[in-house]
Amino acid sequence: MAQLSAMLQQITGDSGGSSFNPHDLRHPRACFAVARDHHGATLGCGAFRPLSAEVAELKRMYAAASSRGIGSALLLFLESEARGCGYQQIWLETRRINQRAVSFYLLHGYQPIENYGRYVGNQAAVCLGKRLTAFQAFSP
Questions:
Q1: What whole-number distance in Å separates Cα of residue 104 and Cα of residue 10?
Q2: How does pLDDT run across 11-39, given as a tens digit for each residue?
């Protein structure tokens, strides 16, 4: 997560740490995932926490630039876990300036939604959402 915070600080001028509380992951319908290589080195991470009974919020998604496919695998895993927890949708926020992230989520079926929660009125923020289908296979 330190790598993610440093990267976000460089891209957006904000580490994103103020919008994430690790204690939110203690909820039974929350999840934190870490991707590692065969040597145990961390390649990426991601999490979701509840926004409502039907909506999970994706947080702290990160994949090292050298880890081809890890971001997609993490996202598919987290979507599958969220579906298993009973969520119908998954939402997220990223900064407009972070076009790599915006493009990544659009490529994976996320669509722009109205800014929610603390992002309402924040012109630098873009919120995206995806309806979770009844079944979507996960393949690492």
A1: 18
A2: 455 544 556 566 777 889 999 999 999 99
CATH 1.10.8.60 matches 2-131: no
Where do the domains of the chain lie? 2-131
Strands across the sheet with 89-95, in order? 31-36, 42-50, 55-63, 89-95, 125-131, 111-113
Longest Cα–Cα distance of the chain, Å, equals 44
CA distance 73 to 140: 5
pLDDT tens figures, 98-118: 898 999 999 999 999 999 999
Cα 111 to Cα 91: distance, rounded to the nearest angstrom: 9
Rounded to whole angstroms, the Cα distance separating 132 from 79 reads 7
